[in-house]
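Ticket #4471: structure export looks truncated?
Reporter: QA, pipeline team
Priority: medium

Steps to reproduce: submit the single chain below to the structure queue and open the exported record.
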Amino acid sequence: MLRELESQDKPRLYVMNKVDLLPEKKRESLRDMGSVIHVSAAKGFGLDSLLERIDELIAEDPVRRVHLRVPQSEGKALAALDAKSVVFAREYRDGNVELDVQAPESLLRKMKNFVRE
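Actual output as written to the record:
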């Protein structure tokens, strides 16, 4: 099937779901490595790691233009936006930085709490 889709050479990620059904000790001993990620879709365990790994494997990372309101105290987020996006406008208001940016989807997922659409 992968050959028919011409996908046999694409990176693969094995997602082991339902880790919430394992005893706590066993679940804590699981380690994500290489192309294996452990998650619980029902409980939300490991989903951030899954998204990060997908972002690492995706060759294409579409960009999108958005408006953000980031607290000035979020220096790490602001630095990431400066480094990895195109900033069209920046205003400082009431302890926040309001930005109009064009950024990769992988970065915007990390900034989802700041997006103002």
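Status: closed, not a bug. The export was complete when the record was re-opened. Leaving a note from the reviewer for reference: Residues 14-57 form one domain.
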